Amino acid sequence: MSRSLRPTIWECTYWADPNWPITWGLVSGAAAAAEAPEWKKVSAKRFGIKDSMIPDEAWNVLHRLRSRGYDVYLVGGCVRDLIMKKTPKDFDIITTADLRQVKDTFSGSAVIVGRRFPICHVYENNSIVEVSSFNTYARGSTSNQIYTSKSPHCSKNDYIRWKNCQGRDFTINGLMFNPYAEKIYDYFGGIEDIKKAKVRTVIPAGTSFQEDCARILRAIRIAARLGFNFPKETAYYVRTLACSVARLDKGRILMEINYMLAYGSAEASLRLLWRFGLLEHLLPFQAAYFSSTRFKRKDKGTNMLLVLFSKLDNFLAPNRPCHNTLHEALVRQPRDPLVVATFALALYLGGDMSLALDIGKSINRQHNTGFSELLEPQVWDDKHLVGEVQSLAVSMRRALTEMTDEYFVANAMAKIPQAPSSDLVFIPLQAYLKVLKLIECVQHGKKEHGYEPKRDGNIDYHDLSYGTPAEVRNVFTLVVFDTLYPSNTENQQDLASNQDSSNKTNPSNLD
């Protein structure tokens, strides 16, 4: 194309609400001071936090830095999760040492990474512990501006902690925990926002998202994972500045989408992305589906796309981009549920079409009749069933190719009313080729040489995280079968009642 179709931040703002006078959320010093939350130092015992909840790798880093005379704290999401009695995904540390001193403390097992906000990766027992420094400030950050007032008689250490927390994204991530003193420091009302289930920016939302538009995606991810809501100001600027995320580096977008879809909150993430006008910028084909089916922004109902992702959530998806080619292919041409099931089985079996036919035709369970993407079942002979399965594979391949082509992405955006122009493609070539290879075995109807499908009912989450073909095929088939044949089919009109999949169909048990 002759020019980039990615919108500027001003185009984005105008498209969201052309009549709104944009102020970027700046507030006066007096107003900020009036709204400043009370500084709190809370005992960790109040929340039942114990030393055993912190892994050895994090303790090792804490001990080494403290033994050299540096102050150390746990910071961010791990403190939030400990308060909520959840298992943190990562344990991040902040210290009074500068990054060079951190690296010297762990000579040979630490490396400084990052440009805008450098941190130190410390390698401990095959794990990475992120260590940041109080002496590091993000390049281009406006956090040196005072948006809330500090306590008039604060100590030097309090001021240092407060200043650092002011530069963080959300109040619930702006918590520091000294595990030695067993104290949690809360300067921006993070604990209260946890109680209220709110994702609120530390500084005014417009300023925060203008400073780093990736925070918009993090806001969606955190709200989806925790089941939290946005205050009015945060919600307004998430929606208003939604299309600014298209200006992010493709790798960053891919990382954030992976985080949303890979940790059990994919369905909630999709709902929020659609509600706040982000889905059309990141996954325009899926957004076009919502638009064409008149699925409202705040719709609490469901559809086949959301059910597929809800079933995916039950298994913890691999940390890979979700192309969702199966659903896109079904939207274009609805199929018999037996065709879809046989396709999934053939994929699971590495292209063994004969065995897939035998297993598929033996299924006698009622399929979910609430999806327009599925036709009424027919009686198929083997020849025509194979033809339909291979046709579905071709359709999926075409959908996958279009999702990675700027021309087709731009066309998908054009189908969404009032959406700005965009041709953003962030799916990397390597991921595209991996998925393509999985589909080809079904398209050609030949079993891959030397391939053996899994024969037990367990999921190897290590293999899943690395996208091992056998494990990806295993989980894909489980998701498809749980969607086609839900455990509760008594009330097909209420699709939400079919979200419970405690009795999961295991393809390894079908033969």
UniProtKB/TrEMBL annotation:
Boundaries of every tRNA nucleotidyltransferase/poly(A) polymerase RNA and SrmB- binding domain copy: 227-288
- Similarity-based family: Belongs to the tRNA nucleotidyltransferase/poly(A) polymerase family.
> Would you tell me the protein name for this molecule?
Poly A polymerase head domain-containing protein
The entry lists its GO molecular-function terms as:
nucleotide binding; nucleotidyltransferase activity; RNA binding
Region (Disordered), start-end ranges:
490-511
- Please give the organism: Oryza glumipatula
In terms of PANTHER family, this protein maps to: POLYNUCLEOTIDE ADENYLYLTRANSFERASE FAMILY PROTEIN (PTHR43051), POLYNUCLEOTIDE ADENYLYLTRANSFERASE FAMILY PROTEIN-RELATED (PTHR43051:SF2)
Question: Record's superkingdom?
Answer: Eukaryota
Q: Which InterPro entries match?
A: NT_sf, PolA_pol_head_dom, PolyA_RNA-bd, tRNA_ntf/polyA_polymerase_I
Pfam families from the xrefs? PolyA_pol (PF01743), PolyA_pol_RNAbd (PF12627)
